[in-house]
Amino acid sequence: MRATHSKKVGTGSNKRPEKLNVHIRNSWRTNLQRIRSIGNMTGYKKSLSEWQCLSEVKMGRGSPIPPMNATVMEITTWAQEYFQKTLSVKTIHRAIRRCRLKLYRSKKKPYLNMIQKRRRFLWAKAHLKWTVAKWKTVLCSDESKFQVLFGKLGRHVIRTKEDKDNPSCYQRSHPDTIHVWGCFSSKGVGSLTILPKNTAMNKEWYQNTLQQQLLPTTQQQFGEEQCIFQHDGAPCHKAKVITKWLGDQNVEILGPWPGNSPDLNPIENLWSILKRRVDKQKPTNSDKLQEVIMKEWVAISQDLAQKLIESISNRKTFEQDEDVQIVLIL
Length: 330
What we know:
It comes from Cyprinus carpio carpio. Helix 11 (267-281) packs across helix 12 (286-298). The protein has helices spanning 2-8, 16-19, 24-38, 50-60, 72-83, 89-98, 114-126, 132-135, 203-221, 240-248, 267-281, 286-298, 302-310, 312-322, 324-329, and strands at residues 138-147, 177-185, 188-194, 228-230, 252-253. The protein folds into three domains: 2-38, no CATH class; 50-98, no CATH class; 114-329, Ribonuclease H-like superfamily/Ribonuclease H (Nucleotidyltransferase, domain 5, 2-Layer Sandwich), CATH 3.30.420. It is of the alpha/beta class.
């Protein structure tokens, strides 16, 4: 009523200080002091109190629908049954914010069971006393795949509503895939094998790759010096024909490599760097993709390779501290 009357007589919120001969700064200061003195103004009662928000998080994690990986709609359904209240999705959003929680995109990580975690720990413990000089004798290897418009490229575009059918705003649904095998050491990158388009690595391809790429690389980088070859436990790597061939060639193996542990291999960081560089070139077909991959691979410096090899000591130390409780449990 007071605000309506002030508007009718010409003393609204914009004109009231002048009509009453009060400076506008003093008017705002007076109102601010009044609000601070009486506290928050009364209004609608919150559907969920602060205690209930905290209870929702704690109790929800033990419920059949844990909030850690449930959608907001699932949490809303669970909260309605638990608190016996009619709650909206917006109410749950506000409750999540009041609990100082946020919605994040979940990371994609390999799943590790207790046995795999224990093997990671034992591997780190076995190599804990290795010096940097020892790690510089290791030749790391792995496979990776590249795609035309790989990764998240093209998933989000800035356009108008009318440009939805513009081909430049499309993301290729089934892009061409290129599988590669590479190796590197502290002396730099080694050979890189690019498999034919849409061809995955198997034991036949792997044996052929080792014959044509591994032996020349070890001879070029290490000569008569000690060289320890590293590869993971992929099925094609553990095939009997591969194990026999490596034994016949007197290749020393760094193993056994713990399963689902690509983060322990520094070549994964090298693949990420290579993919970012290839991404900047934006190849449009598989032929250009192969050219860019080979060009950027050769351009990788020895300093970068040496830093990645030296980082292995930090990785195994972290595993030693992280998984010590797992060994005690088992």
